[in-house]
Design goal:
The chain has eleven helices and 13 strands. Helices cover 37% and strands 20% of the residues.
């Protein structure tokens, strides 16, 4: 498979508007990134599990309409996707409530057909996943997923890039920081690129600075690390050097949902299209700046069309 494969969960999204009413959409961190990658011209597939309900049908139709290959999505009878509700404050900062404990995405690597998903990861052009992805699976599912990551690219001349966004959410781990740290460490051993958010790294590891995040991650063998730090820009480590890449323009966000997901898509798309790390970070900043000026995780396609990818 010559596609980038994004792995995780896509859910029903209810976002509260300025009038107090909720609008229906669909999203999830790695799914958002998959959509933005496809819009940037990257051949991408999404791996998750869905139910056999109308919402699952809508999610498959959305991914397909956006140019995302949805063939790596087993359907589980009698199941339905998770739900999340977004509320935003006056500065655009968001808060979430989730109903996802019985989401079929949790059983992706235990459901019938998981071997085909694992095989697609091994043959992918690149594999993209997050800390939220890791939080979904049982120990058995994690073992199978991590084994596939370890095997990725072994049939070719070069290793498949495995791209990890920490995206740590304490509630997803039931407050068990030790388990989260252990699982993240195993993922980092198998990753070649990391796109963490500094705030998340502070919460999980207590890093005192973005530079400390880079120093810790490179001990796992990662050669490319981009630490996102909101309005302060990003600290980029690649090719043996570390540079700060500031945001190009300050904006007052309407909704910060999807900011990190879209930055990751902008960065990864630019890198896959031949841009250097610094230019790729600027592309990530540009896309994220546009996304946070709209409500919801996935902005209208027309709003993205004017954003330069690199």
């Amino acid at each position: 498979m010559s596609k980038v494969v994004c792995v995780g969960e896509v859910m029903v999204e209810l976002a509260r508007g300025s009038d107090g009413r909720f609008g229906l959409a669909y999203g999830g961190d790695t799914f958002n990134t998959a959509v933005y990658l496809a819009r940037a011209g990257i051949d991408v597939a999404y791996a998750t599990a869905l139910g056999d309900d109308a919402f699952s049908n809508d999610i498959l139709a959305l991914g397909t309409a956006e140019g995302v290959d949805m063939s790596l999505v087993p359907r589980l009878k009698g199941r339905a996707p998770g739900l999340y509700l977004i509320s935003t404050d006056g500065s655009g900062e968001r808060s979430f409530n989730y109903w996802r404990d019985t989401s079929p995405a949790r059983t992706l690597f235990e459901a019938e057909g998981w071997q085909e998903v694992a095989a697609a990861l091994v043959e992918a052009r690149a594999v993209y996943f997050s800390g939220i992805t890791l939080s979904l699976y049982s120990n058995q599912g994690l073992g199978r997923f991590l084994a596939a990551l370890e095997m990725a690219g072994t049939s070719g001349q070069e290793r498949t890039p495995t791209v990890f966004d920490g995206n740590f959410r304490p509630r997803n781990w039931g407050g068990d920081l030790n388990r989260a740290r252990t699982v993240f460490a195993e993922a980092l051993k198998r990753a070649s690129m990391a796109l963490p958010t500094f705030e998340d790294e502070v919460a999980l590891w207590g890093d005192p600075s973005p530079a400390a995040t880079i120093e810790r991650m490179t001990t796992f063998g990662l050669t490319e690390v981009v630490v996102k730090n909101g309005a302060a820009g990003a600290l980029v480590h690649a090719n043996g050097r570390t540079v700060e890449v500031p945001v190009e323009r300050a904006v007052s966000p309407l909704d910060t949902t999807g900011a990190g997901d879209s930055f990751n898509a902008g960065y990864l798309a630019a890198r896959l299209q031949g841009a250097g790390p610094e230019d790729a970070a600027r592309a990530g900043h540009r896309l994220a700046a546009e996304v946070i000026m709209h409500r919801g995780a996935i902005i209208p396609r027309t709003a993205q069309e004017g954003v330069r990818t690199h």
